[in-house]
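Retro notes (design track)

What went well: tokenization of the new backbones is finally stable.
What didn't: we kept losing track of which sequence belonged to which structure.
Fix going forward: every design gets posted as structure first, then sequence, in one message. First example under the new rule, 86 residues:
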């Protein structure tokens, strides 16, 4: 997976689609399936000490990078302008 679509939602859905990042501004969080393909749900809360969402109208970016150190895959990547950068 190299590109993510994004959906702004009030509530994160029970079923997460691969290739989609769900963003709830009301609850200050985003959820997507791990970019390595392991299908683990990655939760990124927004706060000054966690992640920052950058919305540019037709793209989103998250900062800092995503480090899934607690997952078996131990994947690490950035989400920059809807692209997965490993």
């Amino acid at each position: 997976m190299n590109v993510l679509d994004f959906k702004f939602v009030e509530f994160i859905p029970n079923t997460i689609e691969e290739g989609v990042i769900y963003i709830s501004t009301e609850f200050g969080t985003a959820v997507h399936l791990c970019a390595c393909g392991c299908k683990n749900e990655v939760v990124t809360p927004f706060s000054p000490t966690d992640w920052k969402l950058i919305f540019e109208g037709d793209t989103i970016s998250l900062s800092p990078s995503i480090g899934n150190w607690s997952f078996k895959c131990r994947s690490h990547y950035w989400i920059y302008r809807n692209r997965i950068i490993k």
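Added context from the reviewer: The mean pLDDT is 97.
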